[in-house]
Amino acid sequence: MTNPGWPFVHNISTIFVYVLLGIGFATCSTDPLVQQKLDRVLKLPGQTFNVSFAHYAGYITVNEDSGRALFYWLIEADEDPDSKPLVLWLNGGPGCSSIAYGEAEEIGPFHIKPDGKTLYLNPYSWNQVANIIFLDSPVGVGFSYSNTSSDLLNNGDIRTAVDSLAFFLKWFERFPQYKGRDFYITGESYAGHYVPQLSQAIVRYNSAFTEKAINLKGYMVGNALTDDYHDHLGVFQFMWSAGLISDQTYRRLNLLCDFQSFIHTSASCDKILDVANEELGDIDPYSIFTPTCPGNVSQSNRLLKRINRVGHVSEHYDPCTEEHSVVYFNLPEVQKALHVDPARAPSEWSTCSELVNSNWKDSPRTVLDIYRELIHSGLRIWMFSGDTDAILPVTSTRYSIDALKLPTSGPWRAWYDDSQVGGWTQEYAGLTFVSVRGAGHEVALHRPKLALALIKAFLSGTSMPASELVSSY
Ligand SMILES: *[C@@H]1O[C@H](CO)[C@@H](O)[C@H](O)[C@H]1NC(C)=O
Ligand SMILES: *[C@@H]1O[C@H](CO)[C@@H](O)[C@H](O)[C@H]1NC(C)=O
Ligand SMILES: *[C@@H]1O[C@H](CO)[C@@H](O)[C@H](O)[C@H]1NC(C)=O
User: Fold this and answer.
1) Which residues cross the membrane (predicted)?
2) At 121, phi and psi to the nearest 5?
3) Residue whose CA is closest, atom 5 of ligand 2?
């Protein structure tokens, strides 16, 4: 790759052409409102409780020519949904399902018991404060598909943003009650690319078409891939200072990988990454202090592949949670309840698509240029980090933020939840950093209560809670 530049910037007009070609000239034959009603999910298999909120699942065609359709699951707020914002959640990979991770083990209300058949209600679901939409993105991930099989071998950042923008332009037609609603984009890991890229596409679309098509207010990313060079520095430093790798491997990682692409690594960098993985031993690098799932869950060798399991110290934490979702979402009756088209369903649903991951195309080495652009557009931008993740650790996020050279508006301090330190925060002009203490890569899986405090503060635009009065004695 001779051009490390960021092609998206130069291709933004191409995006509009794609979007218009893909959806502009095609009219849906069904009335969108009729389709909205058809998308309503009445009851899920294994749901032994009633819920007070409505939810909807289905497809939106994002490209007529190729036959690409993205699958979504909208879960409305449990009280007063009309007054609450709309929040999109995206998982990364690339190739991992936002329904598998975001909905079923992190921020969604429906979590799956170890039998793989029964559901329980997540008491810290983000639908207490927002209407949440989970999007399987791009095609080939989760239930999203393409009728052109080669599409699955040609996914990349640019088309993912194009298709996601096309998705929302059409989705708001099907759900007109959400038009003009405050909209926020959130996600983790490789969604550190998707989230700012989609935000940029929306901001540019809005300014090109004057009338504010989508009322985007801000975005928030967690343990996010942001800038390959700074992310590498931070990963290696974290692994060394946590005592996971040798001095020699630390030096060689910096020598051979610092200037490499994070997801398209060179052979020499790959080799030393293998050495590092060997030195780590059988720990969960996504959450270095929690037990691994004892079964033979395939452990990825690649550092960024999955945003997966791990667990935590709470009694409720189950390191095998990912396996339960594989059972559940492969049940034909579950797919039927979610309106999955049996003819378009993957022959076997998986949490992450290896095919999509290993054939990923364009992946710019940095998205900091997008941050610079969007900070000036007035969006609310937050970056959070679970501080026991060795995949995209807190050190990486801090190096990336430092590279933006933003003035500090609120100094570094601890934040509190129930009189305990929940993590640390620093506010900059245009960006807020929040760490979550004791959380791994999937912050809401390990620290669901702290994650709920985080989304509450983000959506209300307030600082993280400070210490309550400390009683002196
Ligand atoms: C759910 O609601 C239905 C209809 O109101 C009721 O018959 C049923 O007992 C409820 N189930 C539970 C578990 O509360
Ligand atoms: C994919 O092809 C099937 C069969 O022709 C068709 O019913 C479906 O609408 C197509 N999907 C999209 C997104 O065009
Ligand atoms: C574990 O892996 C072995 C070998 O691949 C396989 O035969 C076995 O069925 C797996 N066990 C479980 C519980 O998945």
Assistant:
1) 12-34
2) -90, 125
3) 147
Question: Positive or negative, the Cα torsion across 241, 242, 243, 246?
Answer: negative
Nearest residue (CA) to ligand 3, atom 10: 296
Could you tell me the pTM of the whole model? 0.90
User: In the prediction, which pLDDT does 11 show?
Assistant: 46
User: Distances in Å between the alpha carbon of 35 and those of 56, 170, 185?
Assistant: 10, 12, 24
pLDDT in tens, 115-149: 999 999 999 999 999 999 999 999 999 999 999 99
Among the listed residues 346, 291, 343, the one whose alpha carbon sits nearest the alpha carbon of residue 320: 291
Locate the ligand 1 atom nearest the alpha carbon of residue 49 and give its number: 13
Give the per-residue pLDDT at 470. Answer: 55
pLDDT above 90: residue 155: yes
> What's the pLDDT band for 21 if we cut at 50, 70, 90?
very low
Q: Could you give the angle at the alpha carbon of 115 between the alpha carbons of 109 and 119, nearest 5°?
A: 20
Distance 327 CA to ligand 3 centre (A): 15
Q: What is the pLDDT of residues 96-115, one digit of tens each?
A: 999 999 999 999 999 999 99
Strand pairing class (420-428; 408-417): antiparallel
Q: Would you state the CATH architecture of domain 7-228+363-460?
A: 3-Layer(aba) Sandwich (3.40)
- Indicate whether 410 pLDDT > 90: yes
pLDDT at 15 over 90: no
Q: Give the Cα separation of 267 and 384 in Å (integer).
A: 32
- The ranges assigned to domains in the chain are 7-228+363-460
Give mean pLDDT, residues 333-347. 96
- The Cα 271–Cα 281 span in angstroms is 16
CA 61 to ligand 2: nearest atom: 13
User: Does 312 have pLDDT greater than 80?
Assistant: no
Q: How far apart are CA 241 and CA 247, in angstroms?
A: 10
pLDDT score at 318? 72
Q: What is the mean pLDDT of the chain?
A: 89
Between CA 409 and CA 352 the distance in angstroms is 39
Q: Tell me the C-alpha distance between 229 and 187, whole Å.
A: 21
Q: Which residues belong to the active site?
A: 189, 389, 441
CB atoms within 10 A of CB 14: 13
Q: Which amino acid is at 125?
A: S
Strand partners, 41: 55
Rg (CA), the chain: 21
CB 137 within 8 A of CB 92: no
CB 226, CB 370: distance < 8 Å: no
The arithmetic mean of pLDDT across residues 351-364, rounded, is 93
Cα separation, 83 vs 76, in Å, equals 11
Ligand nearest to the CA of 121: 1
